[in-house]
């Protein structure tokens, strides 16, 4: 079935530091990203993430941090499980806003999805795009709640 290469760019009205901090805290993703069903730390460098969007299955994988650069605002991880490969967030200031660019290069380890083969590619791309749009909206709410002094748990989608 091959690799899936995705790129998403989010534009946010928050400081690069605030965006980077939120993206580095994977355990809190379920508070603001509706398709991230669970995120738990396994050790200092890795955590398990479970996500589900429109397609009728969960994808669970272990993300292991390769780069965590709070000065350059870069997060890079390898993934193993239902998704295998790499992901990276790069956060920077662009045109008066903060830009968060997400790059992902993965193969699917989930046997049900692999069996669907080439026919599943358009559905998987659509599913990923939907998940990323919801994540951007959720992060905006989460950061606004933090900025206004509300509990970050008040930002749930």
Folded structure, characterized:
The structure is a single chain. The chain is an alpha+beta fold and 157 residues long. Helices cover 29% and strands 41% of the residues. The chain is built from four helices and seven strands; from the N terminus they run βααββββββαα. Strands 1-7-6-5-4-3-2 form a seven-stranded antiparallel beta sheet. Strand 4 (59-69) and strand 5 (74-81) form a beta hairpin. It is globular.
- Tell me the distance between the termini: 33 Å
How helical, in percent, are the residues? 25-40%
Taken from the alpha-carbon principal axes, the silhouette is globular
Helical segment tally?
4
Indicate the radius of gyration in whole angstroms. Answer: 15 Å
Mean pLDDT: 88
Number of strands: 7
Oligomer: single chain
Described by strand count, sense and barrel closure, the largest sheet is: 7 strands, antiparallel
Relative strand content: 35-45%
Order of helices and strands: EHHEEEEEEHH
- Structural class call reads alpha+beta
| Stretches with pLDDT under 50, minimum 5 residues | none
Largest sheet strand order: 1-7-6-5-4-3-2
